[in-house]
Design brief:
2 copies of one chain form a homodimer. With 229 residues, the first copy, chain A, is of the alpha+beta class. Chain A folds into 2 domains: 4-85 and 198-223, Glutaredoxin (3-Layer(aba) Sandwich); 91-196, Glutathione S-transferase Yfyf (Class Pi), Chain A, domain 2, CATH 1.20.1050. Chain A contains 8 helices and 4 strands; from the N terminus they run βαβαββαααααα. Chain A has helices at 21-31, 48-53, 72-82, 91-121, 128-150, 162-172, 184-194, 197-213; strands at 4-8, 36-40, 61-64, 67-70. In chain A, strand 3 and strand 4 (67-70) form a beta hairpin. The longest helix of chain A is centred in the middle third of the chain and has 31 residues, at 91-121. The A-B interface holds A 51, 55-58, 66-71, 73-75, 77-78, 92, 95-96, 98-99, 101-103, 105-107, 109-110, 113-114, 125-127, 130, 142, 145-146, 148-149 and B 51, 55-58, 66-71, 73-75, 77-78, 92, 95-96, 98-99, 101-103, 105-107, 109-110, 113-114, 125-127, 130-131, 142, 145-146, 148-149. Chains A, B: This is Glutathione S-transferase family protein.
Chain lengths: 229, 229
């Protein structure tokens, strides 16, 4: 039986691939696992049927033969545990890759998400300029540390892994901020992730959902206040 | 060979158990695994030997027979995978517990950490009250969702798991904010975690480190500006 994931009925990022179902779609594409998608509206996400899937009312979720999962990191780990191609076979290398998955969601994502939310939604707040500068500094610090670890390598720990998948997706939110372009090896790293055929298939799949939901046939509306997911 | 973890030489929370080595200590105590501790100073955390352990220059790290791990969530998962007592044997129940570990670090921790940092370090900003109120609302939303899921249960998914361990530790940072006390079933849940003998042993171990480092013999200095870890 194919697993079923949930995704935004109408993604607030206008199909730019920033919503977290993208991580799960990408992982499923990497391992060649077909899947179904249940689209949920913003109001539907806060109703009992979806809260039973995710107590925090977020997407993505994952359902398969009675198992119900939430948290993109946990879902990607589940997929990686049941298919080859996303985590090394060697036990120690496998844990290192999982550590990078955790670093992506717990160490890199929070300042990047804060920075994005501040840039988009706090423009009229008295603290906007000062706080955005502080957050830019925090993000630059993390990018510098990540860049130093990556060096000239293609991926974080040798071969491509779920750790890279999660990290690349977290970094993609910086597109348009200019911060990623300041760090050439990270900009190349992200581009390397995006160039993977599995990423491309996942991206087109989520984009098609937005296109179908949009009166303009999916033309991104150019309103940066909506480019958050 | 005993594993070695890293912890603050002098924890900025004055031994109140908020630093993230507490999660690893607690997990090791739950499974009865002795461990060694390497203390690192704030400057040492940014130097090459520690950056080789954690590219982001943070504690805790974990070293065991050539394996070097970072990210408290990954370390606790590694411990849980190699000992019984922290994750269910059933595969689906195990993934559910892991999903809660991810929720703790990726969904609950970021707003709680933001709120804590704002309360401590932005007190002199003219917009402090307004921003703190916004963050309180975000934290209350997550607490309400978590409370609804927990209901009258003792633990998040039946038996105590690493998901509870991580969640309780994230919630402990709210102590003193009053926010946790607004949600009785969560306050009880956290107290239930703290009452576990393994938690108590871990707490005393980290507290002893601070006591040994402090000229006052470990008396908490009462300066809330330093109670962050």
């Amino acid at each position: 039986m194919k697993p079923t994931i949930t995704a935004f009925e109408r993604s607030p990022d206008c199909g730019r691939g920033l919503a977290r179902d993208m991580r799960v779609r990408w992982a499923l594409e990497e391992v060649g696992q077909p899947y179904d998608v249940r689209l949920v509206s913003f109001s539907g996400m806060k109703e009992p049927p979806h809260l039973a899937r995710n107590p925090f009312g977020q997407i993505p979720t994952y359902e398969e033969n009675g198992l119900v999962l939430f948290e993109s990191g946990a879902i990607v780990l589940h997929i990686a545990n049941h298919h080859s191609g996303l985590l090394p076979d060697d036990a120690d290398a496998r844990m290192r890759a999982i550590a990078w998955m955790l670093a992506a969601v717990a160490t890199l994502d929070p300042p990047i998400m804060d920075r994005s939310l501040c840039a988009l939604f706090e423009r009229d707040q008295p603290w906007h300029a000062q706080r955005l500068a502080t957050l830019d500094t925090q993000v630059r610090k993390r990018l510098g540390e990540l860049s130093r670890h990556l060096g000239d390598a293609e991926w974080l720990e040798g071969a491509f892994s779920a750790g890279d998948l999660m990290t690349v997706h977290v970094l993609l939110r910086l597109r348009g901020s200019g911060l990623l372009d300041e760090v050439p090896n990270l900009a190349t790293y992200v581009a390397r992730g995006e160039a993977r055929p599995a990423y491309q298939r996942a991206f087109e799949a989520q984009r098609a959902v937005f296109a179908a939901s949009s009166p303009q046939g999916g033309t991104a509306e150019g309103d940066s206040a909506t480019t958050i997911a």
